[in-house]
Every structure is written in C-alpha cells, then in structure tokens.
Amino acid sequence: MVKTLDIDFMGQPGVIASCLIEGPDGLALVDPGPTTGLDGLRAALGAVGHALEEVEAVLVTHIHLDHSGGVGVMVRSNPRLQVYVHERGAPHVIDPSKLVSSATRLYGEHMDRLWGEIPPVPAANVHPLTGGEVLRIAGTNVRVAYTPGHASHHVSYFDTSSGTAFVGDTGGIRIGAPLLVVPPTPPPDIDLDAWDASLDLIRAWNPQRVFLTHFGGFEQPLEHLADLQERLHQAASDVRALLADQSLDNEQRLARFVDRMVRTFRERLPDEGWVQRYQLAVPLDHCWHGLARYWSKKGPKGPASGSARPRPAQGGS
Ligand SMILES: [Zn+2]
To answer: In this predicted model, what pLDDT tens digit does every residue of 192-250 receive, in sequence order?
Structure first.
C-alpha cells in the first residue's frame, strides 16, 4: 500500500509529496523532502497513524534538496534509518559540503529559509545503488533503474506489489488533474538523450501509475510520460532557437522563455494559485539555465565527446 504525504512545503499544499510505502514488514519513505518540511512530514504521517521514527528506509530518487535534504536530520534522530541513493549521489549525502555550495549558487540568500539544516549522513547508513537492483524494502520487492536526464545521479523505483513507479523529477512536474507535465530542467546535468532512455526504462516496467514528488500519483502513465517527453523536447528546441536569435541578449532570451511557460500555465491551469505551485516546484529561470547549459555543452554539431561529464552535486527541483 502506498500513501501520498503532503509535506506542506513553505506552507503551500500540493508542491512536495513524499510517499509512504506500508509494507507487510515495515515502513519506507520515497523522497522525504527537505529539513524545512519535516514538521509537515511528521504531521502527514501522524494523520495516517504513524510516527517518523517507525520508518526504516528512505528511497532517494536524487539528492536535490527538495527531495532529500532532510535525510541527515532524520538519521540523526533515528540512527537505524537506511538510506538508498545512486552511487553518484551517495558521496554527497555522506559529505554534503559540495552539494550545499552548488545549491547556494542557485538559491543564494534563500538557502536556509528554503531547505534548513543539511547535516551529513553516516556512511554506514548509506546504500549506494547503480540501477538494476531488486531491493527488499519493508517486506516488499522494489526494483531500481538508473534514470538520468534531469540529474546524473537520478534513480527511479518500482514497487511491484502496488504497480507504482516512483519517478522523482525524471517523471516531470504535474500538479492537479490537468495533463500538463512540465520538465524540470535545472543546471548542471540536463541530458535529453539520457532522459529519453530513462523514460523507456520506466515504460518497460509497465507501471499502473507514476508517483511524482511534484505532485503525487497519476494513472495512465503512458499518456503522462508522452506529454512530458513532448514538452521536454519543445522546451529544449525553444531554448535553442532563442539562443540562436542574435537580436536578443541573454536577459531578454530568459524573459521570453519564462513568459512562454507562464502563458502555457495560464492557458491550462484553473487559477493563479496553481500557476504559483508549478513555479514553486520548478523555478522557471532554473529551467532556462539548465537547457542553455545543455546546448552550450553540445555545441553546434551534437553531443560533446567525453568532455561534458555530468557533475553530481547540485541543488533543487
Ligand atoms: Zn524536485
């Protein structure tokens, strides 16, 4: 059984969801969220009859702070908690100093207000993953796939008993019922080919639903993933065209990109509250910078050969 937990990020419902896996043999959380959301996480767990200290395992999709910034504080108060994370992310969970400095470049003075404390997790609690594993978590089988594209250290999980694929940000951002799946594309790791291949791996699980951190579970996963893929490639080609427009400077290019995205939000979403939720989950200037960086790495002829190694440490979305 899986349950959506709204951590009420920054007092806003519907922005960051953790997921509780209630197995026959215990409890696990997928992406518990940042330290600033732990009170909200406790409250959401309490509402379904559980305490945070009962949780035995945390499955991290990736180490961006909105997904897993709170694990250090959680392990400190519950030292038996086991943390699963891709092998490229694991060193930055054990020593978050590079992660914090990279995230500070994106979030600046807002770091503490948004994410709170980010203490290290003892290496003994951390289980590095490569993809391809089948984990036994809370008495249920969970498959792991390496799903980069959004982040070079992103994994997705498939709970075989509920048919739920936990796809983190590789599965996009969709808040509320409309089919509007926005690709979160912050710097520095965006890779369209890798992202396409990751979506194929998720489809190959044949899931009944996808579970997104932003926000919650959606049935008809094929329709969902197709919408994401189309919007990802559209956003990338928009950015490429804007970069090629010599009549604009970078500030104007960014402004046009953001305007187009906001216009799409306003066309498709019921009111301004929803427009703001999407932007809290995915700052649009970050989306621009990630895609602009992607094209600058690729160069005019295609993928850069070897030189554009993804860097593991980064901040949010
Ligand atoms: Zn995110």
So the answer is: 999 999 999 999 999 999 999 999 999 999 999 999 999 999 999 999 999 999 999 99
| List of residues 6+ apart from 129 with CB closer than 8 A | 84, 85, 86, 87, 144, 146, 155
Side-chain-facing half-sphere of 92: CA atoms under 13 Å: 25
Compute the distance from residue 272 Cα to the ligand 1 centre, in Å: 21
Q: Which of 13-22, 174-183, 195-204 has the lowest mean pLDDT?
A: 174-183
Ligand 1: centre distance to CA 263 (Å): 22
Between the CA of 220 and the centroid of ligand 1 the distance, in Å, is 21
**Distance between Cα 248 and ligand 1 center (Å):** 30
Surrounding ion ligand 1 within 5 Å at CB are: 66, 169, 317
105-116 pLDDT tens trace: 889 999 999 999
Domains and CATH numbers, the chain: 2-229 (3.60.15.10), 231-298 (no CATH)
Rounded Cα distance, 54 and 268, in Å: 40
Structure token digits, residue 2: 């899986």
Ligand 1 centroid to Cα of residue 45, in Å, is 20
Question: For residue 296, what are its two tokens?
Answer: 């600058």
- Three-state secondary structure call for residue 302: coil
Distance of CA 301 from the midpoint of ligand 1 (Å): 31
